[in-house]
Specification:
6 helices; alpha/beta; globular; Rossmann fold
């Protein structure tokens, strides 16, 4: 039922981590997918990495999963300071709404405790009041989660997600970026709905036209 999907990623790797499997499935089904990343988190990189490391890795990762380069939008807000830029972020999201006209938005769940993720979630909900919204799961940031929406996946979708995350060489030390973790999580979520694999989402708003 959804033809144009917009992913809001607080940082350059969040889109692939939170909903990479769903994006792979949507693209396989011929739907349009756009992604907006709000920070390349340069200050979070090891000092040995050039400042544009995550930008280059993001471009490679989104290409690996199949999002056309022309469907990418990037902003440069300072990592861990999004609350101070709330109004500017909201205005940028409103521009995305007007220009892209998505019918489904994927963004961090309201349960996400990271301050940047919370800001994107809240401002996204404000901007897209008449559009279906799903909050994606990032377990390391969620103290609790509403298990009320699932997107069923096949193994090739997860292979694409893993290939995309493998592009983030600067983040390879994080356990949740590894293929073993993402496959285990997808199996766990799939088992909750009697499927082999799935991604879990928190339903924020569903609009049926």
């Amino acid at each position: 039922m959804f033809k144009r999907i917009l992913v809001l990623a607080p940082h350059t790797d969040d889109g692939e981590l939170g909903c990479g499997g769903a994006v792979a499935r949507f693209l396989e089904e011929g739907r349009e997918v756009f992604q907006a990343a709000f920070s390349a988190a340069a200050r979070s990189l090891p000092k040995s990495c050039p400042p544009d490391t995550l930008v280059r890795e993001w471009k490679a990762a989104t290409s690996a999963i199949g999002i056309p380069a022309g469907n990418l939008v990037r902003y440069d807000f300072p990592v861990r300071e999004f609350p101070a830029y709330r109004q500017e972020i909201l205005e940028n999201i409103i521009v995305l709404r007007r220009e892209l006209k998505p019918d489904l938005v994927l963004l961090p769940a309201l349960e996400d405790i990271h301050q940047d993720h919370q800001t994107i979630a809240l401002e996204g909900i404000r901007a897209f009041k008449q559009i279906s919204i799903l909050g994606y799961e990032l377990p390391w940031n969620n103290l609790y989660f509403r298990n009320n929406s699932f997107i069923i996946l096949q193994e090739p979708h997860l292979q694409k997600k893993a290939a995309a995350l493998a592009c983030y060489h600067s983040q390879a030390h994080r356990p949740y970026c590894g293929e073993t973790f993402l496959l285990s999580l997808a199996r766990t979520r799939g088992s909750q709905i009697d499927a082999e694999f799935a991604e879990l989402y928190s339903l924020i708003r569903l609009v049926v036209s």
